[in-house]
Amino acid sequence: MSEAYVHTVLLKEGLLEITFYHPKHNSLPSTLLRELADAITGAGADKAVQVIILKSDGDRTFCAGASFDELVAINDFPTGKKFFMGFANVINACRKCPKLIIGRVQGKAVGGGVGLAAAVDYCLATQYAAVKLSELNVGIGPFVVGPAVERKIGLSAFSQLTINGNEFQSAGWAREKGLYAEVFDNVDQLDAAVLQLADFLLATNPEAQSQLKQMFWQNCEHWDELLEERAEMSGRLVLSDFTKQALARYS
């Protein structure tokens, strides 16, 4: 697999699977972020879809977060804001989607990948799905994904991840903090659990699910504005000399 993509497939009646992939550890450039947000929004509007599974391809990394190639190339504020708005749009698409989204996290989640895991409604993972918010390493912070992560694991755990941005926390830690509902030994067990949960939800009332989702996301109605403000913060910081020098070390 050498080309990046977002694929959608109807696995069975009512169950849609959205899969993203990028050859560089499932990192997310603007094109993939836009396709991912559109896929989630489209699934929410599709009457044939009742439940959504969000996953990535490959086995080592669920999502490495922002595309470093694209970050390095940002040279003005409008471009920076637009890039980080890509993450804002995906998170808000998850929030606004009237269908329940099951996250399948088979490997490490870094930066924006943690944000994706936090933005789904129910997240299952393997023991290899360690998490890290590494943004401080390059002179920015997890500003855009922060509200989603904090909502899921609380301010204390979010602060730990953010401040200790050079260290991975285990999948067990993430389960303990509430990011993952369950952690499995391997991908086969993970996939079986994802489908078992999906089958249960397919047999329950879609209207009740939609109303439950509204309740789960109560008090987040201001996130369109909030995440845009956060994208502006990141869009400015990515232009700083510190960040430019830090990114150069990773490129």
Can you offer a commentary on this structure?
The chain is an alpha/beta fold. The strands form 3 sheets. It has a 6-stranded mixed β-sheet, with helices on both faces. A 3-stranded parallel β-sheet has the order 5-8-10. It is 51% helix and 20% strand. The longest helix is centred in the middle third of the chain and has 20 residues, at 77-96. The chain has a single domain, classed as 2-enoyl-CoA Hydratase, Chain A, domain 1. It starts with a strand and ends with a helix. The protein has helices at residues 30-45, 68-73, 77-96, 112-119, 146-163, 171-177, 187-202, 206-216, 223-237, 241-250; strands spanning 5-12, 14-21, 27-28, 49-56, 61-63, 65-66, 100-105, 108-110, 122-126, 131-132, 182-184. Helix 1 (30-45) packs parallel to helix 3 (77-96).
Condensed summary:
The protein is of the alpha/beta class and 251 residues long.
Supply the key terms.
alpha/beta; 251 residues; six-stranded mixed β-sheet; 10 helices; 2-enoyl-CoA Hydratase, Chain A, domain 1; 51% helix; three-stranded parallel β-sheet; globular
CATH architectural label = Alpha-Beta Complex
The span between the termini is: 22 Å
Global morphology: globular
- DSSP E strands, number: 11
The helix/strand order is EEEHEEEHHEEHEEHHEHHHH
What's the structural domain tally? Answer: 1
CATH superfamily: 2-enoyl-CoA Hydratase, Chain A, domain 1
CATH class category: Alpha Beta
